[in-house]
Amino acid sequence: MKRTGGCQCGKVRYEVTGEPMQQVFCYCSDCQTRTGGDKWFGIWYHHDNFKFTGEVETKTFTRKGSSGHDVHQHYCPECGVTVCADITIGQFYTIAGPSFDDAESLEPKMAIFTASAPKWAVLPTTIPVFDTFPSNM
Ligand SMILES: [Zn+2]
Ligand SMILES: [Zn+2]
């Protein structure tokens, strides 16, 4: 299975193969800051299954994740959309769900870091919800 997607202006493009590792709403404070909303909808693909294919290279902003390891956020230098973040400790990318060309086919399967969600957030009721991170991951 191959999927494609990209940023708002279309200069950053990517391609993934296989099935996602996870499909996650993340309510951590870093995701709120990045999105300007209550959560990030991330589709997780292992490094081996992801490649950039667009005409411009992303810019990156690096922060420390909750694990203390680097998270490299990749955004388009033209339109500013954060397409994905490289979770180095897990060797995967969390790709913005709405950036996929077939975004409608990808829905969230769990919610994490809901303890950090804003008070006004409407948490999902039809998928597993975790205060921080599921202990078996
Ligand atoms: Zn762009
Ligand atoms: Zn997050």
From TrEMBL:
GO terms for molecular function: carbon-sulfur lyase activity; metal ion binding. It comes from Grimontia celer. This is Glutathione-dependent formaldehyde-activating enzyme. InterPro entries: CENP-V/GFA, Mss4-like_sf. Belongs to the Gfa family. It comes from the Bacteria. Keywords: Lyase, Metal-binding, Zinc. Residues 3-121 form the CENP-V/GFA domain. PROSITE patterns: CENP_V_GFA (PS51891). It holds the Pfam family GFA. SUPFAM superfamilies: Mss4-like.
